[in-house]
Amino acid sequence: MSSDSAVAMNNDVLEEGELDAASLEDVVSVSRAFHQRRTCKLIVDSSFDFAPAVVHRLGVEVIRFTYVTPEGEMEDDLWQSITPHDFYETLRKNPDVHYTTCAITPGHYIEVFERAAEDGIPTIYLGLTAGLSSSIHNARQAAETVRASHPDFELYVLDCRCDSAAGELLAIEVMRQATHGLTAREVYEWAREARYFIHGYFTLDGFEALAAGGRIPPAAATVGGKLNIKPELSYDTNGALTLRGMCRGRKKALRAIVDDFRENYAYDATLPLAIVSSDAEKDADWLEREVRKQDGCAGVSIIRSQVSPILGSHVGPGMVALIFWGSDRRERLSLTDRLARKVRGQSRGAGA
């Protein structure tokens, strides 16, 4: 894999301060076991807001998304060429400038999957949800092409149905399961089920970025700003953004995130949590302190990272999120969503 198309991370580099000691030890133990009993290869993309230390230690392959600035197209290289603060400070100082992002093309995926096929190791690709990007559709198209030319090659493509560091948490546990003797097919099936047990709740500094991306009307963003309204958001079972609530002020929005954590957390100290922000470290620090106050959470491993330019281009500076393993998100489907799922199932059965 060339440096232009992906990042092949290894164990040689570790940035200080990105993981606490417990989190790092968890990742290292998974990494050692995985490389001793490598049943499959894992490929991910750069939308998962990885802490670089996690990528380095796990040795996963990361396909780079690209984003477009007034200066041209840039690669998301996990903050190697620009710091998070510099990236988000540019957005703060230029509120009328909006970055756009590009889907990974089928051709790019074919290059990555072809190289994996030549290695001959069963491969799983965890991709950004179709609720936010068309890339996963391109990955499936590319996978079909590669399977046709390499019929004996095991290649699985999975829509994570979640975003940001939820994908990071899933990737860590996928690696762990690969060390427990599961075949590539079994790991894929495990991940298909496990993806619904990862929760993510976040808030934004304002509505401007959502309005610029066409997700809410500009007038709503203006009114929200004047009234100091801060949203609490999550994602549904398809991975699309959902509005959890509207809070009067930033602190109330952060407390709403803690409330949802308390209600849905699995309380399993063996599983790390993730806190990510788009250059909002003070609020991320506050969120971590509040999490550790909860019963059984004082020593839980928390992975801290920054929102990548890919998602950051759409949410802007000031986002902060808490991501964790919890209850089955499918059990929280609304009545109308349950009806929609039933209709989809019936229509597919009729067409079979």
Structure description:
This protein has 352 residues and is of the alpha/beta class. The chain folds into two domains: 6-196, Rossmann fold, CATH 3.40.50.10170; 197-331, Hypothetical Protein Tm841, Chain: A,domain 3, CATH 3.30.1180. It has 13 helices and 14 strands. A six-stranded mixed beta sheet has the order 11-10-9-14-12-13, sandwiched between helices. A hairpin with a 2-residue loop joins β4 and β5. It is globular and about 55 Å long. The protein starts with 5 loop residues before the first strand and ends with a helix. Residues 1-17 have low confidence and may be disordered.
Write the layout of secondary structure elements.
Layout: E1 6-8, H1 21-36, E2 41-45, H2 52-58, E3 61-63, E4 66-69, E5 72-75, H3 84-93, E6 100-102, H4 106-119, E7 123-127, H5 135-149, E8 155-159, H6 165-178, H7 184-194, E9 198-203, H8 208-212, H9 218-226, E10 229-235, E11 241-248, H10 250-264, E12 273-277, H11 281-293, E13 302-306, H12 309-315, E14 320-325, H13 335-351
Parallel strand pairs: 2-3, 2-7, 7-8, 12-13
Antiparallel strand pairs: 1-3, 4-5, 4-6, 9-10, 9-14, 10-11, 12-14
Helix pairs in contact: 1-2, 1-6, 4-5, 6-7, 10-11
Question: Features of this protein?
Answer:
352 residues, alpha/beta, Rossmann fold, Hypothetical Protein Tm841, Chain: A,domain 3, 6-stranded mixed beta sheet, 5-stranded mixed beta sheet, 13 helices, 14 strands, 20% strand, globular, disordered N terminus
